[in-house]
Structure formats: structure tokens, C-alpha cells
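tool=predict chain=A
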Amino acid sequence: MRRLLFVLPLLALLASLSDAGVALQRYLESLKLGDTLKEVEIVYPPRRNWGSYRDPRGNLRRVLLDRSQAKYFPVDAENLRLGFSGERLAHIQVIYTREASKKKPLGNLVVDLSLIYGEPRRIDETYFWWDNDTVIAVSDAMLASPDGRGSELRTSLELMDYELFEPLR
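tool=predict ok
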């Protein structure tokens, strides 16, 4: 009887943990959702002024970065697409290089993230995981090929605030 009294609370705790799921990380390539532009510039010091434009979808200010625009840049990244809501980073998209995309294609990245976060939801060739605060989206991005003759697919990983998530747009 005494053992049963100790086992029941333990089983209840384990059941509540399995219902809660795993919280999604809010960090990607040394940036965290909620960072300011100044904090991003500390991580990736600009070589020149970063241009930006207003994106009406989500009312974000977008900053597009490539290797030539920052003194330091993620090794496997072709470019970073950042979205600021007000003064805070609300969207990060990393499009990986050709070599990194060959090493870890979309399917492999989906499998790796599934081991951490569980089965994704899928719309076409985009895979999503989300919790109450954060969304992770993985897909292939179409970029112009270096020789200028067409385009090629690159692996893309996005991290965004849940408020920006509209999967059926």
C-alpha cells in the first residue's frame, strides 16, 4: 500500500510531462527571437549599412544579409533573412549553402528535428513544429544558381514568433 502511494504521484507527474511536449528553442545561428537590431549587429558586425524594407505581411521590417555584409557569418549559411516586429527580432530564416544543403538535405533535417520535437505538420513540402510561443518551419528554398542558368534548391530553416504563423497563406 505504501509503495502505491509513492507510485501514483510519480505516474501523474510523468503523464503531465508527456502532455506538455517539448518547448521549441528560440535560438538559431547565435540569434534569439526577441533580440534587438543592435544585439544582432554585435553577433554579426556589419561591413556596411544593412538595408531594410517594410514587409506588409506580418508588418515586419526585413533585413536580408549575405556573407559580404557582415564581418562574421554562419559557416553553412548562404544568407540570413531577418524580420523585426517593432524593435525586436520576430523571424529568422537561414538558407544554407549548396554544400550544406547536400550534406543535410530537407529530409534529413526533418528527421533530426522530428527526433527532438516529434512528428511535424506538413503543407506541401514545408514541415512545421510549433508550441504556444514559437514556430519552426523547414523547407527547400529556390535560389538562382551561381552560373545564372536557372535555379537550385537549398535547405531553409525558419524560426518565428507564433503570432506570425499563418501556414495557409
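The chain has four helices and ten strands. Residues 41 and 70 are 9 Å apart (CA to CA).
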